[in-house]
Please model this.
Amino acid sequence: MRYQISGKQIDIGAALQQHVKGELGSVVEKYAERPTEAVVVFSKNAHEFVCETTVHLSTGLTAQARNHATEIYAAFDGCADKMEKQLRRYKRRLKDHHRERAQPVELYGASSYILASSEESADGEPDSLQPMIIAEMETKVPELSVGEAVMQMEIGGAPLLVFRNEGNNGINVVYRRDDGNIGWIDPQNAK
Model:
């Protein structure tokens, strides 16, 4: 597995890098069959250290965890515990997903935009109906089954996931509803 361990405006020593490789490696190897890459980013927010970890699996799924603590090692250890809990919860489903799929998940390129918040005039109406784009990035849209999409959304800790449905090749969305259930938007089935 490849490791990318970095710090945002803080130095990461060799001892911390070895600790991260050892601990994260054992957690991921225990629950995921073939991890490909781990990205660990440390940063500082006021008096606390923040650790964000992303693990890319060979099946195309991505697991993410984030933790903060007053010490940098404690921030990573908490993040590794969260990652282990997520992977343990989905171990059976990850292995089943891997057996069914001979090839990794196919990813399609798409554009992602960040829009500026609307400027309102004195009467409460927006000045223009055209939003101002302040950032444009490329993102990937995976081709998954609905079950895999729900699992990817939950493992990644995302509020929603846009994906290409393997069943009908249409663009679909799964999202977490306010009542705790999962919503699924399938425009192709709308009549």
User: Anything to note?
Assistant: The radius of gyration is 20 Å.
